[in-house]
Structures are given as C-alpha cells and as structure tokens.
Amino acid sequence: MNKTDVLIIGAGPTGLFCAHQLGIIGLSCEIVDNLDKAGGQCIELYPDKPIYDIPAIPECTGEELTNNLLQQIKPFNVKFHLNERVEELKKVENRWHVKTSSKQEFDVASIVIAGGVGSFEPRKFPVKDCEKFEGSSLFYSIKDKTIFKDKTISIFGGGDSALDWAIELSNTSKVNLIHRRDGFSGAESSVQKVKELSEQGKLNLYTKYQIDTVSGDKNIEIVKIKHDDGETKELKTDYVLGFFGLIMQLGPILDWGLNINKKTVEVNTENFETNIDGIFAIGDICSYPGKLKLILSGFHEGALAARGCFKYAKPDEKLRFEFSTTSKAAQERLGVKK
Amino acid sequence: MAKITYNTHDGKTHTIEVQNGLTVMEGAVQNDIPGIDADCGGGMACATCHVYVNEEWLDKLPTKEDGEEDMLDMAFEPKQNSRLSCQLTVSDELDGLVVNIPSKQA
Predict the structure, then answer these.
(1) What are the residues whose beta carbons fall under 8 Å from the beta carbon of A206, sequence distance 6 or more?
(2) Which of A118, A228, A263 is opposite residue B80, by nearest beta carbon?
(3) Count of other CB atoms within 10 angstroms of residue A218
(4) Average pLDDT over every residue of B33-47
(5) pLDDT tens digits for B3-18?
(6) CB atoms < 10 A from the CB of A39, how many?
(7) Rounded Cα gap, residues B74 and A313, in angstroms
(8) Domains in chain A, please, with CATH?
(9) Smallest CA–CA distance from A157 into chain B, residue
(10) Structure pTM?
C-alpha cells in the first residue's frame, strides 16, 4: 500500500503543476498515468506543435512544456506510476483507497483527477468478432515480438506503428499490410521501405482495403478484407494487429458516483472539489460555468485544488497563504533556501 | 448563417442554423446533437468528430488540409465521404449541407 497525502490521476501539464502546488504547501503526492510517460495530451497528441498561450512563455512545444514542468517539480521527488490506470475507489474512514490496473494500492487523504479527456486507450477494430480474439491472436500493441516468428501476420493501419512493425516483422514473418488508402501518415522513409519490400515480394501490401470479418476457432485463421469498390479477399493469418492510434476514454472514473456531464466532471470554482468530498477535478476533465479548456486554466485550478486538499491531509493544521518569493517554508521545500 | 442538417445514427434528423465562422463540429456540440465527441476540441488531433458527408456536397466543401486524411485513418469506419467536422467552417455556401453521424466515434 502506497501511503501519501494526495493521489493525482493524470500526468499532463495540469496534474504536474498541481503536484508543484501541493509540494510547495508541504503535501506529498504520487501520480498515476495510463501512458508510459508524463505529459498527457501535450506529449501524445502534439509533442512538436508549438503552444503560444502559456503565460510568460511566448512559444514552446508540448514536449518542452512537459520537460519544464518536470524540472519544476524535481525538488519534491514525486513518485510516478506510469502504464497504470486507476480502477477501484473505496472510502475507508477518512481516507480513500485506490486500486490500479496492475493491483497497486494507494491510501490517500484526497484525490485530484487531472485526467484530461480520459485515459488513452488503443482504438479498436469496428468488427465485433475481434473482441473474441483480443489478447490471444489479435493485438493493438506488441509486448513480445518473438511469438510472431515464422507466422503470418496481418497488420492494419497507415501510421508509423503499422509501418515500423510491418518492416521489422517482415524479417521473420510473412506480413500482410492492409490500409484504407494509398497514402500513409507514417514517415516517408518507412513508406518507401514498405513499397520496396512489397516490390521484392517480402511483404504483401493491400491498399484501399479495410477489415471486414475475422474468423477462426480458438485463434484467428482467416481475416476477410474489403476493397473500396466492394471486392473482398480472404487472407489466411495467424495474427491480426491493429494500429489506429489512441483514443481517450473516461473508463472506471465513470462509476465513482461523480456528477458527470458530457464526459466532464462537475466541480465548484472555489477549490475544484467534485460532488464527493475529498475528490477534486482539474484541467480539461472538469466543468463549471465559464470553463476554458486552456493549460493556463488548468494551472489555476490545480493551485486551488491543492489548497483544497490541505484540510483533508492535515485536518488539525491551518494553511497560511504565502508567496514563494518570501516563504521560508516554501523555499526549504524547494531546496533553494540559502 | 447556414442551415446544417445532422442525421444521427438513431435515425433522427436535426436541422440547425449555424453561424458563419463556426465549424460544423461546433454547431453540433453547441446544440447538443449526440454522436460528435470532439475530444481534442477542434485541433485535428483525435478523429472523434467524424461525419459522412452527403455525396452531392463532397465537391462543394473546402478541400482536406494536410493531416485530415491521416487523422481519418484513425476514425471509426472511415469511408470515401468521410470528413472531420471540425475542419468544415460554416459559411453561406454551406447552406443546406447534410452530414451523417457514424454509429460511434471510437
């Protein structure tokens, strides 16, 4: 059981800055995120796109913003739990117990949901039968590539993941690459490589085709694909891989009894607490009259939510308002006191 | 102003007057038309405002910018007449546009 004052759900800019605000008022926190790195949408959706509306930073990329925030919270030694999704929530006396997808448990005084538009999950095939084979002969990510050796693999998608895996697996497997159009969104060099491999007969390329059905007994044996003009083909295959990027889903948070409105959590604007005492929501995931989905708004919300957490973590103490320029306590926590 | 018709997957038809300058996505979201998620808020980064445009309108719409087709690769059941509604800015020329909202966005 990990015991800390506050559990932050989501390591995007809002969650990271909230960790800073908690640290500076002397509260401890840990952060859970379903992605494999911090940064949230900034890293997953637009790492290289410039952002122009962070106060006092005329221009920075999502990646730079994330790195700066990580730098800013360094003094607080915040523990990250990546590749984990929060699942269960239980109230135990005055504390919250939270369990994650990999069965980690947290015992915390309060929770700050900074989950953006939800946790990132792989986009799946629209075909219903795919569910039956998911995890055995159908995957949306690759954990152990050795299982594909000498097998036939049908890869769907046109982005970098699809192209990179098609190229790599073509060394040891028979690869079919299926994509809905002639153009690809992946790197031009990968597209060229795939076309070369296709011309050399080392990979079968099917463009303007999409998945139609999958069939098989325990494992997939046949994947049927359909051309834009309606023609279908049946491909024998041992595995099917789909790479359609990530989609954001609220997931188990929906079952926590929070007031949810259009995929967002309703909060007050005093401290961004939800309808449940001790659970706060900040950033894109929260809604209130006048809400703006800007990073700067998330920073403000995080600062107030952090102060809202104080009374749950230290019920017998009173929080005094202080400036970081002059507060000795804050400077000690930041490790900058001379 | 343009009248935009949104056919939702449950068979209902919603015709709305949408102000020039808003996108077809915003017209749907502001009027609570179900089925357009627009998770990224119009940044062409998520493909959850995907619509099928009625054939006769396909050629009359602004052409796809770089990146829209890439994003449509990720959409749920993309077709030839797929567009991202966040990329369709409403003007008088779009008066009468009909879009069909897919069964799901993901």
Answers:
(1) A176, A177, A178, A179, A225, A233
(2) A228
(3) 9
(4) 88
(5) 999 999 999 999 999 9
(6) 23
(7) 43
(8) 2-121+247-334 (3.50.50.60), 124-244 (3.50.50.60)
(9) B73
(10) 0.79
